Amino acid sequence: MFGFRYIKFNSMTHVIHFKKGRVKKQGKGLSFYYYAPDSSIVAIPVGSKDVQFIFNNATVDFQLVSIQGQITYRIEDPVRVSELLDFTVGYSGAYVGDDPGKLDARLVNEAQTATSSFIQGLTLKDVLRKAKEIEDEITKGLTSSHAVKLLGVAPIRVNVIAVKPTPEMGKALETTTREELQKEADLAIYRRRQFAVEQEKTIKESELNIEIAVEQKKKQIAEKRMETEVLEEENRKHLREIKIDADIAIEEQKKRLIEMQAENNRREADAHGYAVKASIEPYKGLDWKTILALVQGGSDPKNNLAIAFRELAEKAEKITNLTITPDLLASITAPQAKTK
């Protein structure tokens, strides 16, 4: 109404609002009202974009090859792009010119330029095998291209989908390749048979080697068993010698013990004899009466009567008459009462 309009963009679009030739506002994902008669809206997509390409190049052997692929890029500097190409949109949000498509074409031209010198130095067969190297050459060419940098564009990824010769040359290569593959197949059959023979020979040799190894192992086991038996016998002999030495040592210790015991008994007997001799030495010159009196103290009447009877017996030839009453005998033979 009255020339005022409303416009809205998504977050992946950089918008520049020109009013009377000057930038009024800019940014991503803007939405605003503007006065159409004196405004211009520039919308530059800043998200990643895929560009399909296909172009032909000649090889060193003058054969054409078709290279098909895809370039993924994004606009890093939308202001610079807006200065070189027209991204103005109309009331409906559609571009009013065809400059946005020119950006894709310029990238494809730079890709073709980057691969021309590389492909022209290779033969047709070599080019057909070097899709990865062609990708690298295109990536390197776009990254180092002054024109791409001037546009403010950054290549993200290059994919070469197919590298094809012309249809006629493709059929010729198929025929040649088919013959070569047949030769390789025949050679593979021969080699497979030769390999089978060699494998059979190897298997026979391996079986013989295994039998030899088994016999050697048996021999080693027998020798090891003999060594083990000899070692066990030596160990048993050593144990018997140790046991005999231990028995000898025990018997020697017993012998020394018996000798020590005998020596101790002899010394004890000598000491006892010396003690007895020393104890009776003072009584050598005394008669038995004195000794008896000393031992018993002379306090027992029975002992005194016994001594008297003994003296009578010693002088019996001089006695003519002796009377011993039963009471006297009873007093002598009767047990002495214990005193408390």
Secondary-structure element series: EEEEEEEHEHHHHEHHHH
Number of helices: 9
If you consult CATH, what is the topology of the domain at 48-165? Tetrahydropterin Synthase, Chain A
CATH class of the domain at 48-165: Alpha Beta
Give the number of DSSP strands: 9
Topology:
Elements: E1 4-8, E2 13-19, E3 22-28, E4 31-35, E5 39-45, E6 49-58, E7 64-75, H1 78-84, E8 88-89, H2 99-119, H3 124-128, H4 131-144, H5 146-151, E9 153-165, H6 167-280, H7 288-296, H8 301-314, H9 326-333
Overview of the molecule:
With about 350 residues, the protein is of the alpha+beta class. It has a domain at about 50-165: Band 7 domain (Tetrahydropterin Synthase, Chain A, 2-Layer Sandwich). About 60% of the residues lie in helices and about 20% in strands. It has nine helices and nine strands. It has helices at about 80-85, 100-120, 125-130, 130-145, 145-150, 165-280, 290-295, 300-315, 325-335, and strands spanning about 5-10, 15-20, 20-30, 30-35, 40-45, 50-60, 65-75, 90, 155-165. The strands form three sheets. Strands 3-2-5-8 form a four-stranded antiparallel sheet, covered by helices on one side. A three-stranded antiparallel sheet has the order 6-7-9. The protein has a two-stranded antiparallel sheet with strand order 1-4.
